[in-house]
Write a structure and sequence with these properties.
Structural class of chain B: alpha+beta
Number of domains of chain A: 6
InterPro entries (chain B): aa-tRNA-synth_II (IPR006195), aa-tRNA-synth_II/BPL/LPL (IPR045864), Phe-tRNA-synth_IIc_asu (IPR004529), Phe-tRNA_ligase_II_N (IPR004188), Phe_tRNA_ligase_alpha1_bac (IPR022911), Phenylalanyl-tRNA_Synthase (IPR002319), tRNA-bd_arm (IPR010978)
Largest interface: A-B, 111 and 105 residues
CATH class of the largest domain in chain A: Alpha Beta
Largest sheet of chain A: 7 strands, mixed
Strand content of chain B: 15-25%
Number of helices of chain B: 12
Number of domains of chain B: 2
Structural class of chain A: alpha+beta
Subcellular location (chain B): Cytoplasm
CATH architecture of the largest domain in chain A: 2-Layer Sandwich
CATH topology of the largest domain in chain B: BirA Bifunctional Protein, domain 2
CATH topology of the largest domain in chain A: BirA Bifunctional Protein, domain 2
Shape of chain B: rod-shaped
Number of strands of chain B: 9
Oligomer: heterodimer
Helix content of chain A: 25-40%
Strand content of chain A: 25-35%
Number of strands of chain A: 44
CATH superfamily of the largest domain in chain B: Bira Bifunctional Protein, Domain 2
CATH class of the largest domain in chain B: Alpha Beta
CATH superfamily of the largest domain in chain A: Bira Bifunctional Protein, Domain 2
Cofactor (chain B): Mg(2+)
CATH architecture of the largest domain in chain B: 2-Layer Sandwich
Radius of gyration of chain A: 41 Å
Subunit structure (chain B): Tetramer of two alpha and two beta subunits.
GO molecular function (chain B): ATP binding; magnesium ion binding; phenylalanine-tRNA ligase activity; tRNA binding
Number of helices of chain A: 24
Order of helices and strands of chain B: HHHHHEEHEHEEHEEEHEHHH
Distance between the termini of chain B: 85 Å
């Protein structure tokens, strides 16, 4: 994101002399340019100018040649000889460009360079090196590490260079001691990717006097109408046969020649410094100038060697199979959506590719050390075309970043003028007066803007003059206003302003969001108020399980083959009905869970591995059930309400995503420490937890244990049951299969359940509970023990007892389960304590005998005999 | 006792005095009961004397009756007093023997715990319910239309790229070219519920949508690819940014105490215009009271209303979203996102009620 240098900002706006970067950040954030970071100097001195008195090459055994140098670093830092005289310091330097007579940058003992690199005197190659001559990279100035910094290349005028004295503070000289502000620019404000734009926003925030540099530049732009076609700098053809969304890839191409450039002209020090501080490397004057103009005005530019290219320049889309090697040396397969800048050697139009428009140039046609005639390109490209190409080829360049966000489509002549001026001044070049300007940019339609919108949206009471003033100040042309309605033509650098609400935002942010009053709206109290029944039920489940002693946790829903394997789930069966992520974070977990237990297990495992014992966790979350036969989801445009059929089609393609709850319980179910009662978890704990969930909800659930061969593989075949509500299976409860326990590192008999809450809630009534009257007549209590075959379940017998007893049955408690030799193989005994009570009378002994007889008779039909 | 028919006043008085003396010497209920048998039982002097009264003369009967009444009362009183004394002493001794160290640690049942994140979502829901709003939720695997197009994200918006959004593969049979065309994603924001709410409920609408969202960020100290947001949306005839600011201030107070406040900073979101970042100020902020970024907000973009078939000339609305994890981190001084997402039971167990 852009760097803001106060020194540079001053070019366009009156900035207080003592403005700090902290205050600048505050001023800019008020209008929406957020501070990313204030970068402070990472250097500690002394870092000074040194004059190389002598440099003696000394070849080394390892094949390198080092220079043993004496460097004058000024009286304050020079060495002292035996006689007390100041003498130059001895420094070993391996850089090939080191030679006597150069002025260099010396980091002296005590200095600290980026990366906590501390400079100390050190013995090396048989000398004591008492400091270091620095490269750009060592100072954090750039990437260059080919040699040390030679100040003669740093763009000083001969007089300035002469005036550099040994011992001068090089940090100050190179602005290495200055902080710089990095800001974040939101995607709607491309113009703030320039000093021109930031200066305008600084003005918007503080009222400081702002002068748009483009106004002055435009006054000096040569008028295109003056010359006939033949005398133009170059012919340009825009030939877009594949516009994206019907938008032509290039609606403005401005080309201007600059001739007679003196090759090797140095970039002036001030420009080099500004570029460096903006994070750009200085390469050559023409390239530096194009970069400088981009940073200053926001117009990405390109400089071609005019003598190498042959007109006409053709801006066209790539053809299938075309390739381009970009300046960074990478080869790209071009796509028919890529917009190209090409030229026409041997009269073959558009046959040679010069670069991907607005993204990066190719190897051919670039300015070199020999270039004398330059063609400057300043164009306006379709943001979407550029964005797609930059992403497709993974080249997020400074140019593409600006084009994607929208560049001012009236800026091109001024930008070329500024670049031409700089090449003239520092490179002795002569700008042509016959630029080529292909301009098909559309005229902006004015926005009809009711002033009342400011009140309607922002809640601000502003008068017409205030509104007009703000809009005019941000560059709009404002007309009308008499009837409270303006016609507003936004400035060319604000393509984001298209609707009334956009203008309201401008007015509100410049007037100040903090001046908007505060009011609390009153929601109309109509229809259902408060949480829905299902929302309350979800809370009931969550609170109930926590109350039961379980800990709520959350897990990511991503699963993969390892999870299926641990749960003995057949991947070939589950994957086709699972939601698959195209770009998962972890390639081994590309699916979404169909069961919470799979991801909850990972949570439990993590806890166990951390040495926590008796881990019992639950999770409430969604699972995702893909239907391989689901219809395709249509792509529909925004800003239009889809038809009901289209809306139905959107939802029909989505997977079902029911809400589940699951729990896993390990270790001890009860452990009261010194009291001495310990009991390991087993299936009964999970059953109780699941039953409590159901009970709290008022759900009528029964457990239905499948035959061993029908139990899913992840469960213990003899200790698992379906949870059934209203005839529908809504979950599973029991113990995990010992193999699953082993795979996950769980103790055997780890218990678990998982319930589909969406399904369970669906069986419930939203009506309030209808209370039964409480009988005050005395109860009759009896114990009944039955012997029965193992195949008869407790549930079946209990149901039989309930039905036989009828309404007078108040409670039934199983108090003993016995399986023993006396009963014989395959038989068990269940003993119940039952309580009868009538609502309207005291039960007589005849009554209770009759009930008992009914129960015994009914049980016998199931094969259960009353034990004597 | 000599004879069984003679009434001997002196003898019975002496016997009763003896009995009362014995009572006073007794120290247990056992002794007391034995004494009662001896001095007031069927064969005691007192009982025999009472029976002997019948054989006395009429005038002597009255005198003797009186005497016996007094003796019986004296004995009874003495017995009753001593009995209460002995019972109290025995009870005290028994209780003393049952004394325990009440500070012994007792934890028969584990306490259990809610996770603070869903708990905080419930608190936020309650805030909105208290204002008469409704709580709604939408699917986590969502169509691109609800997550992006309906919210004014064009097809080329950077958020729609693979580096930010989890894309869902379409069915292989229909979609030979890979994922392209599934038009399904893991929702990147709970704002996806905005247009669902508008189409589903119509206007006026006041809803809050808490839920899980997904972005392709690796888990680190401040990021998690799976996180939670609460989206608030109000659309009505007369809503302005002033209403937005009012609700935000109230939410700040509900979450961060009576001194907390919010402020708006100009920003950009495709689905709001004007747009703002929400800054939060609260006194307990780590490093001292101050402003910190909390969420995003703005007035509902007309294109969003149009996506729901609502005329932006008739209705206005505001929307805001805050991160639940972020709120939790700020409120509870949690330094590392790992603690929030890893499900370590020790993390959940710390959280108790509290302002």
């Amino acid at each position: 994101m852009p760097m803001v240098d106060i020194d540079w900002l001053r070019d366009d706006v009156e900035v207080p002399r003592d403005l700090t970067y902290g205050q600048l950040a505050k001023d800019l954030v008020r209008v929406g340019l957020e501070e990313e970071e204030i970068h402070t100097s990472q250097l500690t001195g002394p870092i000074v100018v040194g004059y190389v008195v002598d440099a003696t090459p000394e070849p080394q055994k390892n094949g390198k040649t080092i220079n043993w140098c004496h460097v004058d670093v000024g009286d304050e830092y020079n060495d002292v000889d035996e006689d007390g005289n100041k003498v130059p310091r001895g420094i070993v330097c391996g850089a090939p460009n080191m030679k006597a007579g150069e002025k260099v940058v010396v980091t002296l003992p005590g200095a600290v360079l980026p990366g906590d690199f501390r400079i100390e005197p050190r013995k090396t190659y048989g000398h004591i090196s008492d400091g270091m001559c620095a490269s750009e990279r060592e100072l954090g100035l750039g990437d260059s590490h080919d040699g040390i910094i030679l100040l003669r290349d740093y763009g000083f005028t001969p007089e300035e260079y002469e005036a550099l004295k040994p011992g001068d503070d090089a940090m100050h000289l190179l602005h290495l001691d200055q902080p710089i502000l990095e800001i974040n620019v939101t995607p709607d404000r491309g113009y703030a990717f320039s000093y021109r734009g930031i200066a305008r926003e600084y003005h918007n925030s503080t009222g400081a006097k702002f002068a748009d540099p483009v106004v002055a530049l435009n006054e000096r732009v040569p008028h295109v109408e003056d010359a006939g076609d033949e005398t133009r700098d170059i012919d340009v053809i825009i030939d877009d046969d594949n516009p994206i969304h019907g938008v032509v890839g290039c609606d403005r191409y401005y080309a201007r020649a600059v001739r007679g450039y003196r090759p090797g002209s140095a970039t002036p020090n001030w420009m080099r410094r500004r570029l460096t501080r903006a994070g750009m490397r200085s390469l050559s004057l023409p390239v530096d100038v194009t970069n400088y103009v981009m940073l200053d005005l926001g117009q990405p530019m390109h400089a071609y060697d005019l003598d190498k290219i042959e007109g006409p320049i053709v801006v066209r889309r790539a053809k299938a199979g075309e390739k381009l090697t970009t300046l960074d040396g990478k080869e790209h397969d071009l796509d028919p959506e890529d917009l190209l800048i090409t030229d026409s050697p041997n009269g073959q139009q558009g046959s040679r590719i010069l670069g991907i428009a607005g993204v990066m140039g190719g190897m051919y046609g670039e300015v070199t050390d020999e270039t004398t005639n330059i063609l400057l390109e300043a164009a306006h490209f379709d943001p979407i075309t550029i964005a797609r190409s930059a992403r497709r080829h993974k080249i997020p360049s400074e140019a593409s970043r600006r084009f994607e966000r929208g560049v001012d489509d009236k800026l091109q002549p001024a930008a070329a003028q500024m670049a031409a001026d700089l090449l003239e001044k520092y490179g002795e070049a002569t700008p042509s007066l016959t630029p080529r300007d292909i301009d098909t940019t559309p005229r902006r339609t004015p926005i009809v803007f009711k002033a009342s919108e400011v009140k309607r949206l922002a809640g601000l009471d502003l008068d017409l003059n205030e509104i007009n003033g703000i809009l005019t100040d941000i560059g709009c042309v404002v007309g009308g206003g008499g009837n409270g309605e303006f016609t507003v033509t936004p400035p060319s650098w604000r393509p984001d302003l298209t609707e009334a609400c956009d203008l309201v935002e401008e007015i509100a942010r410049i007037y100040g969001y903090d001046r908007i009053p505060t009011r609390v709206p009153h929601a109309p109290v109509e229809g259902h108020v408060g949480l829905t029944a299902d929302q309350r039920r979800k809370r009931e489940v969550a609170d109930g399980l926590a109350e039961y002693g379980l800990v709520e946790t959350l897990s990511y829903p991503f699963v993969g083959p390892a999870d299926y394997k641990a749960f003995m789930i057949d991947a070939d069966e589950v994957e086709p009905v699972s939601v698959q992520i195209v770009n998962p974070l972890a390639d081994d977990r590309p699916f979404l869970r169909r069961e919470l237990l799979l991801t909850l297990a990972q949570t439990v495992r993590r806890n166990l591995r951390r040495g926590i014992e008796n881990v019992s966790c639950y999770e409430i979350g969604h699972v995702y059930l893909a239907d391989p036969d689901a219809p395709a989801i249509p792509a529909l445009p925004g800003a239009v309400r889809p038809t009901d059929e289209q809306l139905a089609a959107l939802d029909a393609g989505l997977p079902e995503q029911p809400l589940h709850v699951a729990a896993i319980m390990t270790g001890l179910a009860e452990d009261d420490g010194w009291l001495g009662n310990r009991r390991a978890v087993d299936w009964s704990d999970a059953v109780e937890a699941a039953r409590r969930v159901a009970k709290r909800l008022g759900a009528d659930v029964v457990l239905d244990p499948p035959k061993a061969e029908d139990v899913p593989a992840q469960w213990h075949p003899g200790r698992a049951a379906r949870i059934v509500a209203a005839g529908e299976t809504v979950g599973f409860v029991g113990e995990l299969h010992p193999k699953v326990d082993d795979e996950l590192g769980f103790p055997h008999h780890t218990a678990a359940f998982e319930i589909d809450l969406t399904a369970l809630f669906g069986t419930l009534s939203d009506k309030p509970v209808q209370a039964k009257p409480i009988s005050t007549f005395p109860p009759v209590k009896q114990d009944l023990a039955f012997t029965m075959p193992d195949s008869l379940t407790a549930h079946e017998l209990e149901e039989a007892i309930r039905q036989a007893a009828g309404d007078v049955l108040e409670s039934i408690e199983l108090f003993d389960v016995y399986e023993g030799d006396q009963l014989g193989e395959g038989r068990k005994s269940l003993a119940y304590a039952v309580t009868f009570r009538a609502p309207d009378r005291t039960l007589t002994s005849e009554d209770s005998e009759a009930i008992r007889a009914r129960i015994v008779e009914r049980a016998a039909t199931l094969g259960a005999q009353l034990r004597a | 006792m000599a004879g069984n028919t003679q009434f001997d006043a002196d003898a019975v008085q002496q016997a009763v005095a003896e009995g009362i003396a014995a009572i006073e010497q007794a120290s247990s209920m056992e002794e007391l009961k034995a004494i009662r048998g001896k001095y007031a039982g069927a064969q005691s002097a007192m009982t025999l004397a009472s029976k002997a009264i019948g054989s006395l003369d009429k005038d002597q009967k009255k005198e003797a009756g009186k005497l016996m009444g007094r003796l019986r009362a004296d004995f009874g009183r003495a017995y009753g007093t001593k009995e209460a004394e002995v019972k109290a002493a025995e009870e005290a001794a028994e209780l003393a023997s049952e004394t325990v160290d009440m500070t012994l640690p007792v934890r028969r049942k584990p306490l259990g715990a809610r996770h603070p994140l869903p708990k905080l979502m419930e608190d936020i829901e309650d805030f909105f319910v208290g204002m008469g709003w409704q709580i709604s939720d939408g699917p986590e695997v969502e169509t691109e239309w609800f997550d992006f197009d309906a919210l004014n994200f064009g097809p080329d918006h950077p958020a729609r790229q693979m580096q930010d959004t989890f894309y869902v593969k379409g069915s292989q049979a229909k979609d030979a070219a890979g994922f392209v065309g599934s038009n399904m994603i893991l929702r990147t924001q709970t704002s996806s519920d905005q247009v669902r709410g508008l189409i589903g409920h119509g206007v006026p609408l006041y809803i809050a949508c808490p839920g899980r969202v997904f972005r392709t960020d690796e888990l680190d100290a401040t990021h998690t690819p799976v996180f939670h947001q609460v989206e608030a949306l109000a659309v009505d005839k007369d809503l302005t940014m002033a209403d937005l600011k009012g609700v935000l201030d109230k939410l700040a107070v509900a979450m961060f105490g009576p001194e907390a406040k919010s402020r708006l900073r100009p920003s950009y979101f495709p689905f709001t215009e004007p747009s703002a970042e929400i800054d939060l100020w609260f006194p307990d902020k780590k490093g001292g009271p101050g402003w910190i970024e909390w969420g995003g907000c703005g007035m509902v973009n007309p294109n969003v209303l149009r996506s729901a078939g609502i005329d932006p000339d008739d209705y206005t609305g505001f929307a805001f979203g805050v991160g639940v994890e972020r709120t939790l981190l700020l409120r509870h001084d949690i330094n590392d996102m790992h603690d929030l997402v890893e499900g370590d039971v020790r993390f959940s167990e710390q959280f108790v009620m509290g302002e």
